[in-house]
Description:
Radius of gyration of chain A: 18 Å
Oligomer: heterodimer
Number of domains of chain B: 2
Strand content of chain A: 15-25%
Structural class of chain B: mainly alpha
Shape of chain B: globular
Distance between the termini of chain B: 12 Å
Largest sheet of chain B: none
Structural class of chain A: alpha/beta
CATH topology of the largest domain in chain B: MetI-like fold
Number of domains of chain A: 2
CATH topology of the largest domain in chain A: Rossmann fold
Largest interface: A-B, 31 and 26 residues
CATH architecture of the largest domain in chain B: Orthogonal Bundle
Distance between the termini of chain A: 41 Å
CATH class of the largest domain in chain A: Alpha Beta
Number of strands of chain A: 10
Helix content of chain B: over 70%
Strand order of the largest sheet of chain A: 6-7-8-3-9-10
CATH superfamily of the largest domain in chain B: MetI-like
CATH superfamily of the largest domain in chain A: P-loop containing nucleotide triphosphate hydrolases
Strand content of chain B: under 5%
Amino acid sequence: MAGVNEGPMSADDRTGGTTGESGVAVDGVGKTYDGDGSPVRALDDVSFGVDGGEFVCLVGPSGCGKTTIFRVIAGLTDATDGEVRLAGAPVTGPTTDMGVVFQEYHLFPWLTVEENVGFGLERSDRSESERAGRVDEMLELVGLSEFRESYPKSLSGGMKQRVAIARALAVDPELLLMDEPFGAVDAQTREMLQRELLDVWASTGKTVLFVTHDVAEAVTLADRIVVMAAEPGRVAEVVDVDVDRPRERGDPAFGEHVARVRELIGARP
Amino acid sequence: MATDTSSRFDGDELRFGLGLDDPRRLLRGAAGVVGFVVVWHLASLTQPAYVLPSPTAVGDAFAEELASGTMTTALWSSVRHWLPGTIAGTGLGVAAGVAFSWSGLLDDVTAPLVRTLRPVPPLALIGFAIAWFGINDAGAAFIIAVGAFWINYYAAYEAVEGVSEDLLDVGRTLGVRDDLDMVRSIVLPASLPGILTGVRTGLGRCWMLVVASEIFGVPGVGREILRASNNLLVDKVIAYILVLSLMYLLVDVAFRAVQRRVLVWRA
């Protein structure tokens, strides 16, 4: 499909909103839960776009509906209003056009590393040799070739998340959708995984939407940051990160962006 | 680090349950058995044989029954209904438990029936066993199957209920589209530990039910126990109880070995 080959810096819709035929468009999404008697408005008129090949982070205070919007985009939860479009087509349910990575890895513990990575491929129309080749390629990409026959129980958190990323990418989705994927690992592993993710992004040219509560993480990774506000969950502002990669935390421009996003998050009504 | 803790559980603790590979545990177990037999022997000195026979009397009865061939005949008779009853009850129980737990519709339809039938003890169904199958292996197998069914039904039902919704979500995002694929690829493997625990409990319960299933005249170990009881041959009763215990132990150790092999992936 169009979009995935455009390269990371091709964001031409910098203001957010809807995009053309590539990337993701979140358009007026609202979500109301039936709390006991009193409906709870979790999301209200959330609109933003992620262009093909772009890396966008979604940040916000806890309770701003980050996970809800993540689930709506993934097709795991229905929106009350609005719609999500992937490459122009409305998302009506889970699709293999999106590779989804969850915070707690959720590897299938009864499958080996390579079987986990191959899980989605088994349901594709690829031949067996194609699938095997693809699994090899993905394991190579995340540097876990020598652990292919291990079960998840013997892997560290960082390794598990690499497997989860390889599993999500194996079916060659248009979008990599990640919900606080590095939230459960230690700080050192997290920085390593961030660098690796940027490498994977650069080498695959995928569109990435990355949900996090860690502002520094968002500034490290993103082309643009969608800042959400709470009660009800909505987009407060979209911040461009005009800092060259690789980004250093000591860089004044880095600090300015972090401060700016923190201020936006803190400025709750 | 993660491997350290997992090997601890995979290895020593679960090896045989009897501690066959842990000399200290083995020694303590042996001491327990010897202590029990000594106390039993001392107690038996104060009682007539029809109240509490001595361990040696039981040993003699065991040897006598074994030598005469009565014991092997009885054991073979019991196995002939234990095995089909256990297999049928386990298979149907697991299948029903998985299906009713996974499908909201089936669960709604069957819930009142299940709650009504659940408290019926297998023994209460002896009339049906005789009417439907007759006084034979099939009738006895029926009683055993009913017992195995419920244990496996509940174990499988709860195991499936406990399958993480997150794993199902992952499956959905990776292209699992229908119930059959979901159950086969995710629900069954994820609930396998719970299901196998149920199967194992059921295997033991079925040996207990062997006695009940033979109460209406089907030959077997249970029949021998009942007959010996009626004649106050307590040494023989205990000898045949030992047969049941040994069979249970044998099956349990074998099943644990299979279980460990099937669940190597488990932390």
